[in-house]
Write a structure and sequence with these properties.
heterodimer, A: 118 residues, mainly alpha, Methane Monooxygenase Hydroxylase, Chain G, domain 1, flat, B: 338 residues, globular
Chain lengths: 118, 338
């Protein structure tokens, strides 16, 4: 059982080593002629105005929060889907109720304008 | 011995994947040239076949520039996450049934785990971190905007992707990818049983891999290069590699879930020797993946880009309800007829 997971560990390790080597290659083979201009932040040739670590649109947080709610629902549905044939009518109705409640929430966020981008 | 076999399998699959990525870039450039009535790269080697080698060598000898204001450890970590995630996803995809080599029966899949689909979803979820960290650590406005857009887009479409897969699980009752392929023997391909699920899943794959018409994170006219604006040399190369590797694994998963994987209708009953059956199955899988990839490339050069609000509307107001409706209808039909 656990044997099946050993190749996954090997492939993750292999990919990590590959990535670590690849990010160093330019330090070994590349030229090292760094100037002040090269190290400034790119801003279409202008002098950079302040840093980028400032406030950004709250919409992105909202999307992330909605994602968590719906993704947890998806996670609940996986075991249900695998065992659907054994669960019979009861399983079908229970998931229908679950989805119905979720759809009420979905309707609410839609009407509240949480899904609106301007 | 088991470990040795899986090591060899991993090495072979990695080499094939990396070569495919290099040549997919070349195919993309040639196809775009053909569509735009240009010639495209044709000078390095015969008809430009050595162009990928030249490109990689060029990336090797570039200078490593890290902006002074960037967060250096995170700036280096981001491409590592992106590439590790995109290279490891291929591990659960079956690319053939079994093959007899030198007296050993080898299963043509790196890891046949019973949580196959969950592994794929978990890793695509991790991929978001690479992009978010790249956008944040560069401390560049274009990068930050590209990273944020990309995160919001990927997590929005991951929902419809996850829910579309539930339709497949309802039909096959398993999460194991090789069992799903076995289910689709003959002409029982899941695209015929799950047409709506196939469409939502395929569109979600386009969005997950940041391909046109969903390539807003990179949107060159607005954001320069998106989250990898401040990356040079091979660090940029790793992001590029990750994007194309994601395309290949994405198409491989589309083929596995909906297009019958390595199944070639009526091949098992044709009486061919076992060895050649296995070879034809691997060839079938490669041909199907190639066809899906070619479709993705052609879409990129013939369709314009969405506006950002259109993209989010499509994801949240159209694809999500459609995929949930697909699940309900599928469950209902299975309940009625079985």
């Amino acid at each position: 059982m656990i044997d099946n997971y050993i190749p996954l560990a090997i492939i993750l390790g292999f990919a990590t080593i590959f990535a670590l080597v690849m990010t160093r290659v330019n330090e070994w083979f590349g030229p090292k002629k760094s100037t002040e201009e090269k190290q400034t932040t790119y801003e279409s040739g202008m002098e950079p105005v302040r840093t980028a670590h400032e406030r950004f649109s709250v919409k992105f947080f909202l999307v992330a929060m909605l994602f968590i709610i719906f993704d947890i629902e998806v996670v609940f549905m996986y075991p249900w889907a695998v065992n659907f044939r054994q669960l019979g009518l009861l399983g079908f109705i229970e998931m229908f109720v679950f989805l119905f409640i979720l759809m009420i929430g979905y309707y609410y966020i839609w009407k509240k304008g949480a899904l609106k981008w301007d | 011995m088991e470990i040795l076999i899986s090591l060899i399998k991993i090495l072979v699959v990695m080499l094939v994947l990396l070569t495919c990525v290099a040549y997919l870039v070349l195919v993309e450039r040639r196809v775009s040239a053909f569509i735009q009535n240009r010639i495209g790269p044709n000078r390095v080697g015969y008809k430009g076949l050595l162009q990928p080698v030249a490109d990689v060598l060029k990336l090797f000898i570039k200078e490593d520039i890290v902006p002074k204001l960037a967060n250096k450890p995170l700036h280096r970590l981001a491409p590592i996450i992106a590439i590790v995630v995109s290279l490891s996803t291929i591990a659960v995809v079956p690319f053939g049934d079994k093959i007899n080599l030198f007296g050993y029966e080898i299963k043509l899949q790196i890891a046949s785990v019973n949580i196959g689909i969950l592994y794929v979803l978990a890793l695509t979820g991790l991929g978001v971190y690479g992009i978010a960290i790249a956008g944040w650590a560069s401390n560049n406005k274009y990068s930050l905007l590209g990273g944020l857009r990309s995160c919001a887009q990927i997590i929005s479409y991951e929902l419809s992707m996850g829910i579309s897969i539930i339709g497949v699980i309802l039909v096959t009752s398993t999460l194991q990818l090789d069992k799903i392929v076995e289910f689709q023997h003959g002409w029982r391909w899941l695209i015929l049983l799950q047409p709506i699920g196939f469409i939502t899943f395929f569109v979600a794959i386009f969005a997950e891999t940041n391909r046109l018409p969903f390539d807003l994170p990179e949107a060159e006219p607005e954001l320069v290069g998106g989250y990898h604006t401040e990356y040079t040399g091979l660090k940029f190369g790793l992001f590029f590699l990750a994007e194309y590797a994601n395309m290949i694994t994405g198409s491989a998963i589309v083929v596995t879930l909906y297009l019958g994987g390595w199944q070639f209708p009526y091949l098992q009953s044709s009486g061919l020797p076992e060895f050649w059956t296995s070879i034809i199955q691997v060839g079938t899988f490669a041909a199907k993946v190639g066809a899906v990839l070619l479709f993705m490339v052609i879409i990129r050069w013939t369709v314009p880009r969405f506006r950002y609000d259109q993209l989010m509307d499509l994801g949240w107001k159209f694809m999500l309800p459609l995929s949930i409706a697909n699940v309900i209808v599928t469950a209902f039909i299975i309940y009625l007829f079985e």
